[in-house]
Amino acid sequence: MLVRRGRKYGANIYGITQRPAESDKTLFGNCHVIHCCYMQWANDRAYMAAELDMTVQQMILDRSKLAFIHKDMRINCTDFGLLKF
Prior knowledge:
Layout: H1 2-8, H2 25-29, E1 33-37, H3 42-52, E2 67-72, E3 77-82
Antiparallel strand pairs: 1-2, 2-3
C-alpha cells in the first residue's frame, strides 16, 4: 500500500531484498531505479533478468569484485560497475 500510494504523493520508497523472486511485484512495477548486486540463487537471477530486460547470462556478476548493475527505469539506461570504497 505504501508503494502505490507513496508514489502518487511523491514519496521516496526504498525497497531492499535479498530474495527478489519472493518479493512483492508491486515494488518492481513502480520503481524508478534498480540497483542489483550479485545473487547466488538461479531463480533470483532469472527473476531479475526479466525485470531488467536482460539475459540470465548478463546477471552473472563477479562477487569478488563487488560488481553491480544499475538501471534507471525512467530513461531505460543500464550501467555496469564495481563498488569502490
